[in-house]
């Protein structure tokens, strides 16, 4: 005789509960984010629409001002191109005093500063950081497509704000300069007295972004959203990775703002959160496909990965700061003649010793 339904109910409930707990134990790492490292933030429809309007405005503004090659109607005689510094941050700009000293080494109006500060984090506005423009920002999260959106947002605002922004340098709150502003400017655009010629040849200006076709766990990164998730637009042999931080020429910044097809792939949430770093994948992959010869394939921001922890690079602390460290960080490990311009990652306690060697070491090229 079969047991009655009333007597079997506790067994059924217990078995169901056991199987549910087993399922969560086995599969929750792929479903539920763990801590800040795996905090996957989806992009809302409203944020997406806001960004599309902003990007269209930036492209339209650049076109109305003469596109990528004409500037004569701007009414400026011998205009000088500028570098837009784009700070992407979710904490105070601790190194703002050092950056201010960096900008003050320029006697000309050859730069602009734009800050995308995560609205969820309370950030003290550094009033003494000259020319800082805090743009309308959206929430960001590590290892999520929101960092792609924030970088694009910064470029769009910089293009709308000043037609003379010709280069766009993305840095974080943990980055520091390794040279004087004059050294950086001259390396990218030539002598300020003749830099206006860059407007006539901006179609040939190179972007400086790391683009790697070989890297550890490359396939894991490629299938982070699931097998075939990037197809057909991005076959594995077209997938690239690189540093989150770059220096893009204006023509490439406009290409990025116009791009839609690859973005639809990279904004999809990841399944393998340990291999998901969209901001390190989207820009290298797109620019490698769109203009493979127009980029350096190396970054100008040096990062020390020798003792990385939980996906974070080595963080320098106060006792490590010295003239020798600055000279070591400058040295390029590529065949290029370029020295590294910037470095990360530095803890807040580094500010004092860095300021002490700023004039005699960092800004003395």
From TrEMBL:
InterPro entries: BC10-like (IPR044174), Glyco_trans_14 (IPR003406). It is found in: Membrane. Its main location: membrane. One of its GO terms (molecular function) is glycosyltransferase activity. Signal peptide: none annotated. Pfam families: Branch. Keywords: Glycoprotein, Glycosyltransferase, Membrane, Transferase, Transmembrane, Transmembrane helix. One of its GO terms (cellular component) is membrane. It is a single-pass type II membrane protein. PANTHER family: CORE-2/I-BRANCHING BETA-1,6-N-ACETYLGLUCOSAMINYLTRANSFERASE FAMILY PROTEIN-RELATED (PTHR31042), CORE-2_I-BRANCHING BETA-1,6-N-ACETYLGLUCOSAMINYLTRANSFERASE FAMILY PROTEIN (PTHR31042:SF108). The chain crosses the membrane at residues 12-32. This is DNAJ protein. The keyword Transmembrane helix applies.
